[in-house]
Amino acid sequence: MAAQSRVDITISKETLEEISGLSLALAAGFDEKRIDKALAAAALYAAKGQVKPVKNAAPVKTGRLRRAIWANPVMKNKPGAYVGIRAGKSRADTKGAYYRYVVTSGIKRVPYAITPNRKSGAQALRIPGIGYRLSATRTSSVQGRPFVEETVSRNFDTILRMFGDALTSIIERGIPKRGGVRVRLPKPR
Q: The whole model's pTM is what?
């Protein structure tokens, strides 16, 4: 099984009986749409709380890979959120890490050719000690480092606690019928 550069935190209503906020929401008589809105906001709060630990676990402490880690709500299988590495629009986009899959999953296929990006105007690769070449070939595999999955699974108790606290806070304040839900808790560290 290959490592992923993103870890989904999905919420199932059937598995949430132990969280006091959901039982409070059901007792308060909120409809299912409003409860889903509260669950999505609480999941995003919990996912944002994992961004800093994942950044600290990144293999290189500076650079694109660390800057590209973020939390976002899921588009399918709502409610939920994910912690992952932003891809970026192109290699030239410095807000993303286009090579995220190589770092998290590794490369088993050898030889592996590395060529420069022709669109950005780069004509050759600078290889330390050798100079400039049009391409380089890796002759050994690259071991994957699934730091995103490992960090999130190691901090799962913290995620559940943050989720429960956020959900309880949202339910106690009331879930609005229209508009977004804001979590009135300190920003996750």
A: 0.73
For residue 93 the two structure tokens come to 């986009």
CA–CA gap between residue 12 and residue 22 (Å, rounded): 11
Cα Dmax for the chain: 70
Helix axes 156-173, 32-48, angle to 10 degrees: 140
Domain boundaries of the chain, sorted by first residue? 6-93+145-173
At what angle are helices 32-48 and 20-28 packed, to 10 degrees? 160
Helices vs. strands in the chain: H and E counts, helices first? 7, 9
What does DSSP assign to residue 178?
S
Enter the tokens of residue 185: 């808790």
**157 closest CA partner among 167, 165, 145:** 165
| 3-state DSSP of 28-93 | HCCCHHHHHHHHHHHHHHHHHCCHHHHHHHCCCCCCHHHHCEEEEECCCCCCEEEEEECCCCCCCC
**Distance of alpha carbon 57 from its chain centroid, rounded?**
13
SS3 call for 6: strand
Model pLDDT for residues 6-43, shown as the tens digit of each residue: 777 666 665 565 565 566 566 666 777 888 888 899 99
